[in-house]
Amino acid sequence: QPAERVTLQLKWVTQAQFAGYYVAQARGLYRAAGLDVRINAGGPDIAPPQVIAGNRADVVVEWMPAALASRERGVPLVNIAQPFKRSGLMLTCRAETGIRTPADLRGRTLGVWFSGNEYPFLAWMARLGLPTNGTPAGVRVLRQGFNVDPLLQRQADCVSTMTYNEYWQVIDGGFTPQQLTVFRYADQGVATLEDGLYVLESRLSDPAFVARMGRFVRASMQGWDWARQNPDAAAGIVLDNDASGAQTEAHQRRMMGEIAKLLDTTGGGRLDPADYERTVQTLLSSGGESPVITRAPTGAWTHAVVDAAR
Amino acid sequence: MAEPVIAARDLSLVFTTRDGPVQALSQVNLDIAPGEFISLIGPSGCGKTTLLRVIADLERATGGRIAVNGRTPEQARLARDYGYVFQAPALFPWRTILGNVMLPLEVMGIPRAERAARAKAQLALVNLAGFERKFPWQLSGGMQQRASIARALAFAPKLLLMDEPFGALDEIVRDHLNEQLLKLWAATGKTVVFVTHSIPEAVFLSTRIVVMSPRPGRITDIIDCDLGPDRPLEIRETPAFLRIAQRVREGLRAGHSYDV
Amino acid sequence: MAEPVIAARDLSLVFTTRDGPVQALSQVNLDIAPGEFISLIGPSGCGKTTLLRVIADLERATGGRIAVNGRTPEQARLARDYGYVFQAPALFPWRTILGNVMLPLEVMGIPRAERAARAKAQLALVNLAGFERKFPWQLSGGMQQRASIARALAFAPKLLLMDEPFGALDEIVRDHLNEQLLKLWAATGKTVVFVTHSIPEAVFLSTRIVVMSPRPGRITDIIDCDLGPDRPLEIRETPAFLRIAQRVREGLRAGHSYDV
Amino acid sequence: MSRAVLPVLTVCAALVALWYLGAVWMNWQLVADAQARAGAAPDLAEMVRLTLAQPRPLLPAPHQVVAELWRSTMTLPVTSRRSLVHHAWVTLSAALAGFGMGVAFGVALAVAIVHIRALERSVMPWIVASQAVPVLALAPIVIVALGALGLEGLLPKAIIAAYLCFFPVAIGMVKGFRAPDAMALDLMRTWSASRGQVFWTLRLPASLPFLFAGLKVAMAAAVVGAIVAELPAGAQAGLGARLLAGSYFGQTLQIWSALAMAALLSATLVGLLGLAERAVARRMGPRA
Amino acid sequence: MTALLALAATAGFAGLIAAVHAGLGGAALWAGVAAAAGLAAWLVQRLGAAPGEGWRGLAAPLAFGAVVLALWEVLVVGLAVPMVLLPAPSAIGARFWLALPLLWQDFVQTFLKAVLAGYALGCGAGFALALLADRVDFLRRGLLPLGSFVAALPVVGIAPILVMWFGFDWQSKAAVVVAMTFFPMLVNTVAGLAAAGALERDLLRSYAASPGQALWLLKLPAALPFLFTALKVNAPLALIGAIVAEFFGSPTVGMGFRITTEAAKLALDLVWAEIVVAAVAGSAFYGLVALAERAATFWHPSVRHG
Ligand SMILES: Nc1ncnc2c1ncn2[C@@H]1O[C@H](COP(=O)(O)OP(=O)(O)OP(=O)(O)O)[C@@H](O)[C@H]1O
Ligand SMILES: Nc1ncnc2c1ncn2[C@@H]1O[C@H](COP(=O)(O)OP(=O)(O)OP(=O)(O)O)[C@@H](O)[C@H]1O
Ligand SMILES: Cc1ncc(C[n+]2csc(CCO)c2C)c(N)n1
Ligand SMILES: [Mg+2]
Ligand SMILES: [Mg+2]
After folding, report:
1. What is the pTM of this model?
2. Among A51, B20, B181, B190, which residue's beta carbon has the most beta carbons within 10 A?
């Protein structure tokens, strides 16, 4: 029986953030499940919902805010699995600026990732009562590029970082953890769900597709489980798949270690509806000029696939 | 008189420009018989070039009628009835002298072997044998002008239209080419329409001289030039020659205004 | 004889080009007294322009000596000793005719009010009154050339260098300007060095005619032209005139080769 | 030729000297901060040495860039994904494909415009407007849209490169095809030459200088286009991917070496076009 | 006749658009598109071939643009292309209208601040260095070959570096614009200053004119056509440069900022509205420079003869 084709679109460039999928691929877990999986790397300019709408992928890795936004824009994505339980997003500040608590942020310059990733930040600021429109009583916001340069070059007091990536670039830039103040969005109660697996709603009416996705999710979660237990080997597999040849082994090992802390492989990737509700509430309370979603979505997740995977 | 090669009736041409219309030709009546050598002479801007261009179908008359070999100028042009020599040589810089002279033959689909032979013969006629492989800019102005004459002769048109072909040449070279042209004309019986600024040149070459005057461009005089077919250079010092020259000069002066 | 305006001794000039050196002038010896009208005549490429440019310090001689008003050509140029009329009009297309004629006065720092008055007077002299506000391209070739002559006269230089100034003009206009130039020369006592291709023009205008020959460019004959200061156009039919013209023609023909 | 060598070398030397000064000046704060955090107080010479040897400088010193270039081209097998040669090749192939398509389209457009007057009036303003559209903004959309049509790999990148490089070619060739003067065109008319004959024997040869000027600009544009197209193509491989990855991981040296490689690539290609131009000019008369 | 044709084409497209919004599709759609497009091509051909000056000359490009928009609308709606791939012109128009204040803010930030400042500085610096190179032959021969080398550096490469150097606000975007516009101006000005004829130079030499006088009276006027070529090429270039530079870090306003962030949020209608602003601003900028060119180089043959 020939293997069935599945194309997976990642959210970002090849790195340990996606180790589970590369491991499942490299260790033949997909093949064993009767699947021929193609993994396409992403990048800062790649919007996975656009890719899936253009029929260039069967399933995508996406953050929930962007996935919900695409639902409102006519691309009805549905979450079929959620390997990442916790958010790795944080705001990292230079301690010498005197920032100790969220209240110290008033009047500071902050680097923020936009492109749909700004909503947790906006929700947080709304909760703190800090305007983000540049008034002196609030904070000054910069659209942060792909790296942490604004912090190293003192153009910003704080920048956005992921626990598993940019934070370590700050450390590599010559800072010790003691010289940094770190706010985790999870700790501030404004975390949103990150890397989940999404498919187009229309295809879920096809039982064969649901079954195929079930096998895909199960194999992927096995991959994640293996990666969590063998971080160094998993980092090696990621490096083997890096076409740009720009990643370093040390950085990927460290990243794999941090990623492992965000995972929840016990439920087979089952989404916790409470996490979902918290994400929606955070997004709806964020305000901003162009809200990412204007009303609570319906039908944005399903357990049908994880159930089929058992 | 045989059927005229060129027959113009009340020919007129108005250029429309931004500043308003410019009357370049007005009420031109002219018959040219086969084998004639006609010179057009007149002050700058009187419409000599324009008249030649109308004959060649490079400009469309806005009034009157004109026939070339009994047909419209366009039909005559498509039938390749005439050869045209412009005031400047207009050689293509990326072609050798031979290549330039062969160009009309190429356009007209004449077989390759014949092309080269005919072009070489014409180059010899204008004293350019040995310069076939040179490029135009390797020749002096006079030589370039001669090459352009060879090019116009290459496909042996029965009618030659020449617009101040010898304007840029010094007196000695000019005399020489005048003699050559006269010989060619006598030998082949071509019809020639020739524009010039030089009175002696016009008198030396022509069977008839057409004097034009500007604003609007019209024919003021047509002077017969019956010096016979055999004209050595020395004829220019004879009283008959000087008399005709004087008549042309007077005709010219009459139509002249210094502000042109 | 007063101190010569131009004194050339064994003057020579070699251009170094890619194909090797080109001897443009060789062993030129020439004295020009104040108030003389000297014509340079000779076949194309014999070095007439080059000689004029050496006098004007637009080219540096590679051998021999030359003095202009007893100084080096450079000193003479910096002292604005001469006016130069080029073969082409070289008018600036972004300036009106008046603006073009005022250009040298502007460069030489003459007050604004005086500039316009002097330029207008010169334009009147060459029959261009009424065309002050036109741009060069709105004028015919002949009018442009006259404007460039007015420009050279505007700052009243004592020495005029003119390189085929009347080459592009028709016979009538040319005759007219020849007369004007002769009048101006007689009235102001300027020294003129004049290049031409036309033998009658050279004889009509000059006190002396310098005949040159190419390869290498050298002076082959200097012909006195003692027709007196008063020269109506009709003088061109007199035997004295024709005799000088014949001498020039022979001198020219001697140095001529057809392949130039 | 040799007359140009000394001035170019001098200006190069001046630029390199300026660059070193700039490197010291721009990296000073970085080093000073790091030293202060470490509690050290180095002397001037040590400071300068450190500013020129930063692993992640604000502005790397020239020798650092050269060393990085050397390391990533010469010390690795060219097939390795870490070899800059490999990435240069990926970019080069897309750039050349795009260049070919863009030049073909630009020339065809110019031919059509020269022969159909209505086309110039109606289409030309839109072509100008099209060049004011930021390609980088459209690149991701183009790549996805083309992907939806089943086109992927080299082709989308080449199309973006072609989009950037057809414009200078088209503009130049319209000028070039109209370069023959009126007299030459009249001459062809007196022989009642066909449009095709006028094109092949007159317009085309007369347009060659414009063609080469346009080709050179287009070549540089094609390289830029290929690099731009690599950013959203998933940062897989190519100089664009290296730039992006370098930027993403704050690897200044990697950015600069990719940049230097890109400049080297374009300069070489443009130089080759210059040689071709000379060869053609020599065939068309050795004056040039 | 032309008016009739225009009427017919307009009616045809209006009907077609109404039909597709009502759910027309399949073979009928293609037949309608083919008929309307044929009619429109004929119309554009007629308009383009008719002589026209000034405003009348705009009829052809406007008609062509309208036809492209209409076809776009019909095909996108008729084939039900998802908005995230390509929004319909009607959707873009509606969003444009709603987002007008936002678009204006972005326009001020990107165009009025970064583009204009960078354009003026870049063109000015290129011009100044060209003047210097014209006086110092050594510089000219040394700079020009390097110029083509540096001009080959991709903007996308230098933009992150300049953001790193000049900060997040419009200054770093202006720096990118300077880098992009500098070399075209330098190269063109150097060529332009060399364009004055030898005869004209000799004329001024015969007047013993100073170098300054020669520059002001001859070389600069003669260089104007070249200067304007650079100014025209640089106009759209400057805009693209500023927008692209914003992709690499910016404050939370600007055309490039909006395009990337909204594209990631799949608000493609807003992205396209921003692209429309860019295309219109770029074309208008180009048009203004072209008008100035016509006025300043009225004497040049290419302008004189239309
Ligand atoms: N394309 C044109 N547009 C407008 N006016 C023109 C055009 N061509 C010629 N003219 C005008 O028509 C008149 C006749 O010009 P034409 O070239 O026939 O003169 P010509 O007798 O050949 O003069 P020349 O001896 O200077 O060559 C002139 O007044 C000229 O300005
Ligand atoms: N810049 C130059 N470089 C090399 N050779 C030159 C240069 N200028 C002139 N010559 C050569 O010097 C010789 C004399 O040229 P010149 O221009 O003085 O001739 P001329 O007598 O004025 O001719 P014409 O009657 O054609 O104007 C010619 O053989 C010419 O080819
Ligand atoms: C333009 C752009 N910048 C930053 C992010 C944020 N982000 C999401 S996943 C990821 C990788 C983690 O290291 C990062 C940085 C983004 N999505 N798009
Ligand atoms: Mg004429
Ligand atoms: Mg000369």
Report:
1. 0.81
2. A51
